[in-house]
Design goal:
The complex is a heterodimer of chains A (411) and B (179). With 411 residues, chain A is mostly helical. Chain A folds into 3 domains: 135 residues; 125 residues, Cytochrome Bc1 Complex, Chain D, domain 2 (Orthogonal Bundle); 113 residues, Orthogonal Bundle (Cytochrome Bc1 Complex, Chain D, domain 2), CATH 1.10.760.10. Chain A has a two-stranded antiparallel sheet. Chain A has a two-stranded antiparallel sheet with strand order 3-4. In chain A, helix 11 packs across helix 13. The longest helix of chain A has 17 residues. Chain A is globular and about 75 Å long. Chain A starts with a helix and ends in a 10-residue tail after the last helix. With 179 residues, chain B is of the alpha/beta class. Chain B folds into 2 domains: 83 residues, Beta-grasp domain (Ubiquitin-like (UB roll), Roll), CATH 3.10.20; 90 residues, Orthogonal Bundle (DNA polymerase, domain 1), CATH 1.10.150. The longest helix of chain B is centred in the C-terminal third of the chain and has 17 residues. The chains are: A mainly alpha (411), B alpha/beta (179). Chains A and B meet through helix 14 and helix 15 of A and loops of B. Bound molecules: FE2/S2 (inorganic) cluster (2 copies). The site of one FE2/S2 (inorganic) cluster (FES) has 10 residues of chain B, from loops.
């Protein structure tokens, strides 16, 4: 009898609603985690209501639309229980049992503990319902067959596992969770196979997304591009550091996610990425003009013609206008893809915290021909990027032709 | 800074090639080497567009280029027009007749201090030339004007008068078709 009573008490205890204070805490924590997991990025269309879906995510298999995750019972997740929400987050299972497309990073979230999922759900329950359906995703065959994803999931869904952490600091362990699970950084910064699965053996070694490289986040590669612990956490917090600003796909990540993370978590992320004993950040000296090869020398004049007005003649940049080229992480990438793309496409005006601004950068795709672009790339890379090799015009042509995106995040 | 000879055509006249510093911004080249001081240095950061000149491309199109953030040597061998090149002048170089855009801007009080005016005149000129190649339907007119002048900043008068004067000049020139 006593046994039974205990059981009943326990059951009642478990089902009892959280005290108000606990519930408030849970919602607050959930809001923080929602930002850390950057749900907003895919579930909010540009200029649209928060979490109402509609963002078009390009993938090699077609366009996938972020879904409405507001409390709308008809269009959103208003009917989801905590269990169902957890299954969606960690297994990619919709309430009706259908598979979600793995643009939803359950391949990373599957390592999320139940309490964090519940907190995120608790927070999302406080978001006003938006009674609007996000556009229907329609992919080409065979990717339009959601059932087929069952097999895909069996093969890949839980490929990503946390690394053993016994001998690691507490910060490293927290950082691993924030980077790998919450931030799901690997989803973009890891190459993908033809089936769209992350190649876990090359985890964080860099991927391709919408024509741009998502650079390697491996400690040695980061250090080679001049990153140290302080700069990396500053970059996440403020969207900028002496290595440059967050642009392209990272720009919304800053706005929706990393700027809201507390200093301890940001430092933990930097600790995880660079390791408890970080490699020394490589310093690159500016090379003299005489030291450059012919193409780069010609590129110097291109630079003075169309870049120096904002980035300054000696590459030191101008505050609130344009970043420095000296020490710039994109200039220092071995792969010239991003440098070329950014010169061709330009960057829209950027806003950062504390009224910080960067002015729009025009694109030069129709201003500079392939030889001029090649010369300019050689100049930037050799002068400030620590590169000694020379790109040929054919390298630029190849990159221009390769708009392929086969390793896109949205598959 | 090293210097190199620079040659270009400004307002229809070839300019003698003299040695110009490799990093000289175009606006300084116009002001200091050619005594063409009508192009205005506003922000100096590529935003206000007070400093634009017109580049005449070999294919017959024309475009605006900001001279504050573009080096003089970018214009090597190019044909450009500045604000000084629009009006008719006598042999002494005295202005005898404004062009239709300038006239409309004056008549309609489009500007006040005029700091931005050279940029607006050049932008409207590029627009006129674009529509001369392909006239615009009336229903599109306001959007086309917005798209063509929208990046120019004026701190005095607002934009309504510039835009309506431009709309009127485009009609005067027969560049707006029904539809
Ligand atoms: S002065 Fe050139 S854009 Fe403002
Ligand atoms: S009239 Fe003064 S800035 Fe435009």
């Amino acid at each position: 009898m006593k046994h039974l009573l205990t059981r009943i008490t326990l059951a009642v205890g478990l089902a009892a609603p959280l005290l108000q204070a606990q519930a408030d805490d849970q919602v607050e924590r959930g809001e923080y985690l929602t930002r850390a997991a950057d749900c907003m990025a895919c579930h909010t269309a540009p200029g649209g209501a928060p979490f109402a879906g509609g963002l078009a995510i390009e993938s090699p298999f077609g366009i996938i639309y972020g879904t409405n995750i507001t409390q709308s019972k008809e269009h959103g997740i208003g009917l989801y229980t905590d269990d169902e929400f957890f299954a969606a987050l960690t297994e990619g299972k919709r309430r009706d049992g259908a598979n979600l497309y793995p643009a939803m990073p359950y391949t990373s979230y599957h390592l999320m503990p139940r309490e964090d999922s519940d907190a995120i759900h608790a927070y999302l329950k406080t978001v006003a319902p938006i009674e609007r359906d996000a556009p229907e995703t329609s992919l080409s065959f065979p990717f339009n067959v959601r059932l087929g994803l069952t097999a895909w999931n069996l093969m890949y869904a839980d490929d990503l596992q946390l690394k053993p952490a016994e001998d690691k600091s507490e910060a490293w362990q927290r950082g691993q969770y924030m980077v790998e699970v919450m931030g799901h950084c690997g989803e973009c910064h890891t190459p993908r196979s033809a089936t769209g699965a992350m190649e876990v053996d090359k985890h964080l070694s860099g991927g391709l997304l919408n024509g741009y490289l998502s650079p390697s986040l491996l400690a040695d590669d980061l250090a080679n591009r001049g990153w140290n612990h302080q700069d990396l956490s500053t970059f996440l917090k403020h969207g900028m550091s002496s290595q440059g600003t967050m642009f392209n796909e990272m720009y919304p990540v800053f706005h929706n996610s990393t700027q809201f993370l507390d200093d301890k978590d940001l430092a933990a992320m930097a600790t995880y990425l660079l390791g408890d004993t970080p490699p020394a950040a490589k310093v690159v000296e500016t090379r003299t003009l005489d030291d450059l090869n012919d193409s780069a020398k010609r590129g110097h004049q291109q630079y003075l013609n169309v870049c120096a007005g904002c980035h300054a003649p000696e590459g030191e940049g101008k505050p609130h206008i344009a970043v420095a080229m000296r020490g710039n992480t994109t200039v220092r990438l071995d792969d010239p893809r991003n440098l070329l793309r950014v010169i061709e496409d330009g960057i829209d005006e950027q806003q950062f915290s504390g009224f910080e601004r960067m002015q729009p950068m025009p694109g030069f795709a129709d201003k500079l021909d392939q030889t001029q672009l090649t010369d300019l790339l050689n100049y930037l890379r050799q002068r400030w990027g620590g590169q000694t090799g020379e790109l040929a015009v054919s390298d630029v042509q190849k990159l221009q032709a390769d708009k392929s995106d086969t390793h896109s995040k949205a598959d | 800074m090293a210097k190199h000879p620079l040659q270009m055509t400004i307002n229809g006249k070839p300019v003698d090639a003299v040695d110009i510093p490799d990093d000289l911004p175009m606006i300084d080249y116009l002001h200091e080497y050619n005594n063409l001081t009508g192009s205005r240095l506003g922000c100096g950061q590529g935003i206000c567009h007070a400093c634009v000149v017109i580049v005449d491309n070999p294919d017959g199109t024309s475009e605006e280029v900001r001279t504050c953030i573009t080096g003089a040597h970018y214009f090597a061998g190019k044909k450009i027009r500045t604000i000084e090149g629009h009006a008719k002048r006598d042999e002494q170089g005295v202005v005898t007749e404004l062009n239709p855009i300038q006239l409309r801007f004056v008549d309609e009080f489009a500007f006040q201090c005029s700091y931005c005016a050279p940029g607006f005149v050049n932008a409207a000129t590029v627009l006129v030339e674009k529509l001369q190649r392909q006239p615009v339907a009336k229903s599109q007119l306001e959007q086309v004007i917005e798209d063509s002048l929208g990046h120019h900043i004026c701190r005095c008068t607002g934009y309504v008068r510039y835009y309506s004067a431009t709309r009127n000049v485009l009609s005067d020139l027969g560049l707006v078709k029904e539809g």
